[in-house]
What does this fold into?
Amino acid sequence: MAHRAKKMHVVFASAEAAPFVKTGGLGDVAGSLPAALNNAGADVIVMVPKYDTIAQEYKDQMEHVADFYVSLGWRNEYCGLERLVLGGVTYMFIDNERYFKRSYPYGFFDDGERFAFFSKAITESLQHLPDGWTCDVLHCNDWHTALAPVFLREFYQGLPIYDQVKTVFSIHNIAFQGQFSDKVLGDILGMSHIPAAANQLRCDESSINYMQGALRYTDAITTVSPTYAAEIQTPEFGEHLDGVLRERSYCLSGILNGIDVDGFDPATDPRIVANYTVDDMAGKAACKAALQAELGLEVRDDRPLMVMVTRLTRQKGMDLVMYALDRILSGGVQVAVLGTGDACYEDGLRYFASAYPGTCAACIKFDPALSQRMYAAADMFLMPSLFEPCGLSQIIAMRYGTLPIVRETGGLRDTVTPYNYVTGEGTGFSFAHFNGDEMGDAVFRAARLFWDNRDAWNMLVRQAMERDFSWVRSAGTYMDLYRSLRPDVEVEVGVEAVGQAPEAEAAPASEQPAPEAVAESAPAPEPVAEAKPEAASASAETPAVEAPEPEKKPAAKKPAAKRTTTKRTTAAKTTTKKAATTKTATASKTATAKTTAKSTAAKPATAKAAATKATAAKSTAAKTTAKAAAAKTAETKAPATKAAAAKTSTAAKKTAAAKTATATSTATKTAAAKKTTAKKAAELAAAKPEAEAPAAEPAKKTATRKVPRSRS
Ligand code: ADP
It folds into this structure.
């Protein structure tokens, strides 16, 4: 029977993790995804700063594991590692009181230095982990940890325990990038003497951008929903990083967030007034009456109660709320908002609460317990975001049988199915444009259903509550990604290999066959003169695939016959199409680099990479064309947002046209002219999957050497 030789060791680094520290969705994700990854077969260590605000009960349970010093420019800073195991997940807290003994997590003048320290400490910690635990994949989240992949490649590459580490960077909100004066580059990061790093971090003549650094250095990029993954590659949503993301689209994917379905369960939640289930909703009515009384609203079950639990910012659609609230409140819908944020919205909500006593309540604070009572009590949950990477609030709302009313963007679009009057399908209501009247219409569509057709309403509530928002599927997708990056770690040991030492099965990449093995045994190659131009045209989109990288490792020996009998199905099964593209292209690059004197041998691999690139470009173009079409459809709807929609449409069309041109040109030149060679090379690759594994290393190195695009 097959079994895993070793678990995938993942260090998951985040500036927040519930229940220790949470200011938004990142805290929820880091507090729940690692447990799901453990269930999916990984062994995860979560790294978080040891903030002063962490509850004393947790601090008391922490165990000191190690301490060392972290260099940061001219500084040498103390770093303690404190361990705590909670819910089966190991947490390592990074301790430095100068940086983290503060009354709240972010928003200080020296955040650039604080999170540069955090990132360097994460990287340094990898050699201080207990019990000989070695990191296979370093998974970083948002700008606070974005420098870790940069430090890892620039300062630690070459050290044995760092050499094999692959990095994943997840974007939870691209609006927050960590952009600072370029003085930070020398003074804090100690990188001004490394031109490649300086180039890749620089975003304008006087600034550097931490997230941009991660996007250029990391091995794989993810974001928290498929729609947002497409959106951030456009100028409308990319916040000036869309160019970098388009360049690296071959390693970018959207993996939808889940929630901790046990922690957010109306059947067991101790924070709510009465528990309830999808089959017995009496408790929800009790929750509603109790909240109405608590917030000073009229206690009436015939009034739909709509709530928001949110940061009060423009991103969350507060402009639309301010615009439409008069209409909504005077139309008989009760509204309660819990949130903190921009003063103009806080003041606006206080005004409406005083203007509509008994109908509107404004709770200007951050209160997780109250938020649970609101999710449980409400009939509707409003989330009209300008953009939304994923959004967890609407998911939590559905879990509690509260129907979301959302704008169709990012993860809101991926998680809420709008009500279909004909079929009865749906889990909420939605509107397309960032327009207050459209939002108001959606609110009254929901309210009318609540008033006029309670059976249909109850059916929607049931459908929302029965949706599966657990982490199971997404954790599996993350595991697939990790395995595609580290196919050497979790090698399944088959019957034929029983008795063989696990170490021998999970051979490190350096021991796997060199790409030349593929190239040399490939069929008659195309002339170099023809193969090269296509490769060059492919590089216009993904230069990472092209630039040759000096060989660091000695040519690896061929695997023993027994190794080939080892089941490599895990890697083969789980490697995504994109990963396959990257790998293939990488193999080509390595082959090219290695065979200056052996150009003939490298050519089939180069042709194969170009052909694969053509396919990738084609599919990207198709995606972008679909987006252009969507933008065009949107254009016909809302006069108030027509200009914005037109802009989206035009930009998307331009991108689509440009991509199509690239795809066509590459496809024509490469896929057609080199069809035969590429096909043979692909067949060869399929026949020898292990031969491509070691190529991943040079790909990552090349990515670190790219010259950044201008952000203007
Ligand atoms: P974002 O991360 O962009 O703020 P999400 O919807 O992804 O938005 O996650 C927000 C999380 O923070 C949810 O769990 C929500 O309940 C919680 N939250 C937001 N504001 C408050 C608040 N004022 N009090 C308590 N919880 C809040």
About this structure: The pocket of adenosine-5'-diphosphate is lined by residues 24-25, 28, 309-311, 338-340, 366-368, 371, 391-393 (CB under 6 Å). The chain has 30 helices and 20 strands.
